[in-house]
Structures are given as structure tokens and as C-alpha cells.
């Protein structure tokens, strides 16, 4: 049985913070903005020697754009204090006039994390820390005079929140395991999986866990955004696999991902030639998917 939460369909681009690819990024942003895309997700792997600091890059990119909304895809929690993440996110939201969302992950590539001074966490520890971090961040965005928190990984001892974000920032979690998916349904605003780690065939079961968590918290599952990082190539030849083929194939498969597989926002990571690929995505795929979804929903 298909899953469609009825949400408006959104589109964006997945950006790499590689220092030697800045020319491509600066060329890509106006294409995305003028092409009607809404989001730019920037990966956050501080231990990658070729990567610029994601937060510094997002600040610069926000200053160079007027409409695009940015988010870390996803922020590396083991190397970043949730209190500082909260301050940085609120600051970027204020400075950009409300164009920042927060993608947050439990951590991966632990050898690299430890090499950079981070704490090695097992699966349960990483999950617990992520859930705590969401609570810490929300406390520091609140209008309370001061906040306290005592967890197994993080603590606040009478911190005064502020400044407040310019808008209600969404916290979107990049998680895959059953326990964190259920927690996401209870505490988060969105889900950010990647197609390489969460293939379409497995999405229904993952949605079910999110929805069960939402039900436990008395929340509407449709209030949770479902963002899909999709990697592939728009070509002029025959299909060579999932999201590797002509624009017509992309339209068909993305429309199916909305109506049958429950996703509502697609962040495109081009396999090559990013500027031209995003031009084609914006012109040939995005409007056709929106039209097909509208038509099928009636």
C-alpha cells in the first residue's frame, strides 16, 4: 500500500564544501535560486581535509543568496557541542532573515571523529546523545529566563537562552535505526535519509517507526517533513539504474517516491557536472514532478 502524507513537494541541492570546488558552488547557487529550488544541504565532515568548515561556508552562502534556505546535511554532533550548534543555528537564522534549518546526525566515521579529538560512541550512546542534544537545542531556543539540563552526555547549568531564531527552525534528523526513527517521531520536525543508505524498498518500514513515535507523542505524522538526499545523473541516454537516466525517468521515479513512498522533499546531489545537472533538474524535472503530484492527488 502506498504512503503519501499530502505535503507540498520541495526541492533542493546537495552541496559539497570542498575547497577546490568553490567556483562550482558559487555558480550553482544562482542556478538553484533562480530555478525555483528551495534548499541547499551542505555535508558536515570536519575531518575531511579537503572540506571547508560547513558552518562558515553556509554563512557565506546565505549572504550571497536571497531566497534559498540552508541546512547542514547533517551536522556532526560528536564534534560540535549542541549548545554551540543552537547558538550558531539561531545566529544564521537571524542573519539570513529566517532561512536556516538544522539537520543533525548522531555521528559516523568514528575513527576520524576520534582522530580529531571527538568522543567515540557506541550505537546506543550515540543515539542517547542525539536525543539529549535535541532537548538542549530546544531549551536554548526557548523564551525561558534561564535553562538547566542534566543528561548522560550534556548539561546546562543556568544558561540564558538567546538570541531567539528568526523563525521556528526545523530540526531534521539523519537517522536510520529503529530506536532513533521512533524517537524522531516523538521529538523532531523532519527526517533526512540518503538514497544510498535508505533505498526505496525500505522506506515504508522506516516511515512506520517514525509514525509510531509520532502517535506516542500525540503528533500528526504528516507534520514531519521527509527529506530525501538523492544522488544520480540526468542523462540523454537510456536508464542505467535508479535516478540515472533521462529527465522523464526522474519525473516518474520522484513522483512515485512522493505518492507511494512518502517522501516530500528531494535534495539532488549530481554525480558530475553539477551546474548543468542542477539547471536540468530545475527546468526539466522539478515542475513536471510538481504537476504530476498535483494531478494524481486531484
UniProtKB/TrEMBL annotation:
Q: Which Gene3D superfamilies match?
A: Luciferase-like domain
Q: Which domain of life is it from?
A: Bacteria
Q: Which GO terms describe its molecular function?
A: monooxygenase activity; oxidoreductase activity, acting on paired donors, with incorporation or reduction of molecular oxygen
Cross-referenced SUPFAM superfamilies: Bacterial luciferase-like
The reply to whether Oxidoreductase figures as a keyword in the UniProt entry is: yes
The record ties this protein, via Pfam families, to:
Bac_luciferase (PF00296)
Q: Which InterPro entries match?
A: F420-G6PD/mer, Luciferase-like_dom, Luciferase-like_sf
Whether Oxidoreductase counts among this entry's keywords is: yes
Domain called Luciferase-like: residue spans: 12-236
Keywords on this record? Monooxygenase, Oxidoreductase
- Give coiled-coil spans as residue ranges: none
Quote the protein name from its UniProt record: Alkanesulfonate monooxygenase SsuD/methylene tetrahydromethanopterin reductase-like flavin-dependent oxidoreductase (Luciferase family)
